[in-house]
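At this stage, I put together a protein sequence along with its fold in token form, as given directly below:
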Amino acid sequence: MTPIRSIRMTRCSLVVSPVDIWTRRMPAPAALSVMLAGIQRKPVRKPDGTYLFFDLPEGSYLLNINSPSFIPVSEWVETSRLNPLHPVVTVPLLPGPGYMYPAASTAVRLRLVGTFGAPRAGVAVEAYATGDETARGRVSQEQLPAGETSIRVSLPQGQTVAGESLLLRGQGKQELVRIAEVLPDGVWRLEQPIEHSYKRGASLLPAVRTYSSEGGVVLLPFRGVLPRTFAATLQVGLTKLELELRSGEVLEAPPVLV
């Protein structure tokens, strides 16, 4: 008699693709810890920098990514909403206090402090370039109505990845948008519908959304082919600061009281 052999089939349930939002590259494996809360099995890291989880029951999972170089990530992933043939989740990693700047970086570094000088951690911070000469691209469709979730972009400048923030501005209106997926033919799918209507030629300017670290430190990277000097706005809650940045330099801004 032929012996009966048991064959166990494995199924890839989730692929986590962590991307350094500054360099648009996968971080080194020693720099990251990628785990799902409540799941003891460690993911399999592929040579391309992605992390694979196998044979997960369908459901919601809390994804935790920790690193000495990046701000910790903790976000929910619903596996039933993923493409079963391509269950990829791209996770943008924002620079933390231990981050090593790439050469010729353009950025702002500052600290958020409370009334008595104590560092403020976990505070949301936004910043964006204000000059049209910094535009990373422009809206190419004739009309971009409010509620739209994708933008067709002409003259895109540099590589754009999921998780990147940009300031959409035109016709006297503006709002921060975040890229959910970069599609073929210059189409960017957004994480949320836009609030206002825009027309052809509206600008997409460099922007950053991040959080302060445990020490209250904030790093705000700006990418693109930037002019030698350019203006930027930094916003923390109701507080706005107008800054002048120099391309290829990291501006050490004074502490901000929040």
